[in-house]
Task: structure prediction
Amino acid sequence: MSQIIDGKAIAAKIRGKITEQVATLIEKGITPGLAVVLVGDDPASRVYVSMKEKACQEVGIFSDEYKLHADTSEQDLLALIGRLNNDSKIHGILVQLPLPPQINTDLILESISPAKDVDGFHPYNVGRLVVGKPTFQPCTPYGVMVMLKEAGISLEGKEVVVVGRSNIVGKPVAFMCLAQHATVTLCHSRTRDLADKVRSADIVIAAVGKPEMIKGDWIKEGAVVIDVGVNRVGEKKLVGDVEFAEASKRASAITPVPGGVGPMTITMLLYNTLESARRSAE
Result:
């Protein structure tokens, strides 16, 4: 059986370090602050926001929540972000997605100051990531890279296949792997001969959002599997994008779902907020 890469344990270790560093910063008179903006009452978004607030409290980061009605206008949301951009107590601004249909998501994300864009979604920060000079790296792919490092897995010279081309995970994680000297193939749900592409991989990063789309017998013996997908099957069961039971028989290391990449996302959000607060003191 393969090594299980325990995202909960790695996240707990990183959060312990963040707690210490936040305390040191507070002693210098700077309390890292995160503003979380939630528009509407989407149940999943409410859960995510609650988790982020709880995580902030645990590490000592000041969290300010703004809950807005679902019919909030684009102009009112832009005005709020403008105020937060100019608020010295706030070092990170997070607008929970998805937004209601009357609001242009791209416009909102681009209105956040790049210096407070702790999600790493602003085009300025995306551009810096592409050229290899990141300011803030998107939290989920950043978490993937930290997990690989903590598990002692080097990317240098490896064949990495990323399945999924989203702006949130697939594209940024491909550039992060390139920066670590991997050879990267970026695939998606319409890639021809996807199984053959996956079989060539030393490291598979699955982020396509389809339950168990990647079959266990696609995994090369000894490959590493990072499963970013979280898909609900039935009422309670969660599965990843990879057929875990079969893949784990072939992989040298694999992340579970749940308990793999998931805990790392909020952890890296906390880290980015801490880094932003540090920079504000320079």
